[in-house]
Amino acid sequence: MIFYKFVVFYKASFNKVVNKGILKQIILDNRVEVERYKVFRREVDMSSFPCYVLVGLRRAGKSFMLYQRMQQLLSQGHTWDEMLYVNFEDDRLEEFKASDFNLILECFAELSDKRPMLFLDEIQNIDGWEKFARRLADNKYNVYITGSNAKMLSREVMTTLGGRYLSVEVYPFSFKEYLDFSGQKYDANSRLQTGIKAKFMRLYHEYLHWGGLPESVGLPVKRDYVSSTFQKVYLGDICARNGISNPNRLRLMIKKIAESVKQPLSYNRISRILSSVGGKISVPTVGNYVQYCQDAWLLLRMHNIASPFVEKETISKYYFTDNGILNLFLVDADTSLLENLVAVTLLRKYGNDPDNERVFYYNSGVEVDFFVPDDGLAIQVCYNLSHSDGTYEREVSALKKLPSALDCKRRLIITYDEEATIEDNHGKIEVLPYWKWVIA
């Protein structure tokens, strides 16, 4: 009995203590890890404000953006005596709790007498991280934080942080970044050369179908990597984090949303479909599941600008942050993938705020895929406009009618590889390939 009590006490004590020696080892190991990576530089400026929170889908490149910033500082003459990097997905930190945060500063102080700039990776794994982050900002530290959970930008968290951090949304590679990373030229003259144009179009096809997760670029078979990313998000960031007892039902929901990516969906409709195939599921549960997917940056929500408030909250279009993950669920997917790509491009440019009030779709008498009020930009997406199935008339007709309802300064039809100009009483409608729209 005495031995048993000792074991229990020892185990409890062990669980409460993070070994400072291990923390120092992690800090020193990470210095080597950061320097050995050849980082692709992305166009994000993190030098104008002292504290940043980087958020986005798992494996979208947030950690590498921290590496980029640290390597940039090293090239400017800073040293590791001024920088502290910790990744909270390190398995050596499984026992780490919010009460242990100060140990990081203590360990660094024993390695250096300088005030560190802190780089804290995947910090959302530690409950209560917000108070430590605020204390660092209050004490005038330079801090860079990453996380894969959209709750890091919730009103409650941002209230706790008190405006002390700027948020940066990190998406998988844009098409320009994908081309640059692949070493592909895309200026107008290069695209006229047969060999270069052929490679350009091959990369375009790859990007449309398998997205832009940075570590997938260059892999000869991308499906396995993309699938493993989805499993990590699905099982780890969604199911485990939110205590979902029926993961199969959640997966069915994600599959249904993928198959309906171009169409508005209501919680009621999702509930009815899932209840018919996998046992009864309530509307509130569906709402929670959708929110969990948004929190993990798997799904992006878009509202109908013409809907009343209640419908805006319950009937939405949903898109996937990465085309490759969407493609896992689809067959003959080109049209859906192109529209998804346009949606993500718009949200990347205009921002994905918590209320999703920057990019909309329009559905009231006519249907238009996207509308951006700030720029008066209306967009239809059509993989092949020359089909003889009424596609041309349907897509063009909606854009011809929209200026009677909304202030349109520019009207576009985004295609896979068609280009034209259409004139009407309101001016012109541009028909552009997606690739030309984003790299022009």
From TrEMBL:
Q: Which Pfam families match?
A: AAA_14 (PF13173), DUF4143 (PF13635)
Question: What organism, scientifically named, is this protein from?
Answer: Sodaliphilus pleomorphus
Q: Does the keyword ATP-binding apply?
A: yes
Cite the entry's keywords alphabetically: ATP-binding, Nucleotide-binding
GO molecular-function terms, A-Z: ATP binding
Q: What's the protein called, per UniProt?
A: ATP-binding protein
| DUF4143 domain location | 237-383
UniProt-listed InterPro entries:
AAA_14, DUF4143, P-loop_NTPase
Residue stretches making up the AAA domain: 50-179
Source organism superkingdom: Bacteria
Output the PANTHER family linked to this UniProt entry: AAA+ ATPASE DOMAIN-CONTAINING PROTEIN, ATPASE
Say yes or no: keyword Ribonucleoprotein present. no
